[in-house]
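Final report, closing paragraph on structural work. Over the funding period we assembled a curated collection of sequence-structure pairs, and we close with a single example.
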Amino acid sequence: MTYHPKSEFLATIMARGFLADCTDLQELDERFHRDAVTGYIGFDLTATSLHIGNLVQIMLLRWMQKTGHRPITLMGGGTTKVGDPSGKDEMRKIISVDQINANADGIRRVFANYISYGDGRTDSPLVNNAEWLDELKYIEFLRDIGKHFTINRLLAFESVKSRLDREQALSFIEFNYMLLQAYDFLELYRRYGCILQMGGSDQWGNIVSGADLIRRVEGADAFGLTTPLVTRADGKKMGKSADGAVWLNEDMMSSYEFWQWWRNVADADVGKFLKMFTELPIDECERLGALGGSDINDAKILLANEVTGLCRGKAAATAAEATAREVFEKGGVGDDLPTLELAAGEVSDGISVVQLFVRTGLAKSGKDAKRLIAENGARLDDVLVTDAGQMIDAAALAAPIKLSAGKKRHALAKLAE
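Its predicted structure, as stored:
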């Protein structure tokens, strides 16, 4: 039997495809219906930017705030020093504290586009678990928290079991991660009255452990909610492209490239992605997702504009769309294309077309660029490149040159002013 929630938050996220599992859906619905609920999601600081795979969680926090509740974005400054084994085939590399702090600064910029921070009733506190984890006294932690966990139970977690089944190393430091994440939930309950932890489906065991720890230590109810693994129509995970991660930060991926990724999603993904990553009404998302033929392209442009507008701002979305129209419909250059600026000294003897494709990011390596040329996929100013040894001199770069890899990926190269 399908459950019909009373609370606006759960009704919204269920209709939009955000719910995979919940520890007690009916009781949690009652809490959301009756009170303002505080819930959190933790983000480890393993890179200077999150990618679009993290947008599921960010949108979940946004909807929580928009429906009158208080979301907490928990920065994993402490847990990142350990490494989450969930969904990983090998040990994570240990990251320096300076790098972790730099990553926190980069990630914080994205959250501010989606979530309101401050001291209001539904404003989000931006919290870093290093505040308490860095101060832990290990013996006291083992005595007070470790006693609530059994090795039997930890070994039964899918994140641990799958690693052991494949005879892949699981370090003792990673093994501790589960205790630390549970302790985070307890600490947030004590500090902020947080009763809900949310996360991806691979976090189910960790989330349940935290809720159970609160029950054991504080005698209080706490809840867990997970989102499904979001895949594209081709079966691949969200967050990746053929050329790597699709980053949320401008300094990691230009707004034009970000916009283009959404513009080029598969027809079958349009309706689902509109529901999950925009705030358009459900009926409109379904109508747009059901379009066929050339009409679906208009829906994709709307998807790209809505997602880019939320993540990068309306001006970035408008500029990206204008550039796309200039490049694809009018055969022009476009002002917002990723641009490589070359110093005059770098091209005094010319630069090879292969290097241009590599340095603009349109090819991963010289070998990749040569293969692109051999397969008739490389163009300069819309003219097919047939010679991998072709050299471009400084005079040719006085005005921007448009490089194209296939029909959808473009960049500019020019002399620095």
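The longest helix spans residues 97-114. The chain has a mean pLDDT of 86. We thank the funder for supporting this effort.
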